[in-house]
Amino acid sequence: MTRSPVRPAAQQRPATLAALLLAVVSAFQAALAAGVPWGRAAYGGMHRGALPARYRASSAVASVIYGALVLVTVGRGPRAATRRRILSGASALMMLGTAMNLASRSRLERTLWTPVAGTLAVTLLRVARGLPAGDARRG
């Protein structure tokens, strides 16, 4: 029987925080997709109430992607080297998201999502850097 390696606390804490924040963002996107009237807190705050259909579809896709990132962050899915690449890329996108949220016209979006995206950028990068860069099987 193979045991999964024990993560050092220095990597476990950022992974736990990132997974929690990703789950919150996934749930938020799922709620938007379902028509919950939180349009002021998303997509630049352009829509009061429920989002139009195309934005709801986009939120549905985003919810699935964020959910998959939760699994990758906690160590489920591909080999470590592939996880490292996925999480590094997600971190870079979160850095971009931080800048976009900071520049948003929506005060709610700036105050709520800027710190979430910034925290995700840092924690995902910390988790990624704690993973092996490559392995013999080319993950």
Describe the structure in your own words.
- The protein is an all-alpha fold and 139 residues long.
- It has helices at residues 9-33, 53-73, 80-102, 107-129.
- The longest helix has 25 residues, at 9-33.
- The mean pLDDT is 90.
Q: Biggest sheet, open or closed, and with what strands and sense? A: none
With helices defined by DSSP (H or I, 4 residues minimum), what is the helix count?
4
Cα distance spanning the termini: 22 Å
**Average of the residue pLDDT scores:** 90
Number of domains: 1
Topology as a string of helices (H) and strands (E): HHHH
Number of strands: 0
Strand fraction: under 5%
> Rg to the nearest angstrom?
16 Å
DSSP helix fraction: 55-70%
Helix/strand/pairing category: mainly alpha
The unreliable regions are none
Q: Which word captures the global form?
A: elongated
Give a quick precis of the structure.
The chain is an all-alpha fold and 139 residues long. The protein has one domain. It has helices at 9-33, 53-73, 80-102, 107-129.
Outline the fold blueprint.
Blueprint: H1 9-33, H2 53-73, H3 80-102, H4 107-129
Helix pairs in contact: 1-2, 1-4, 3-4
What tags apply to this protein structure?
mainly alpha, 139 residues, 4 helices, elongated
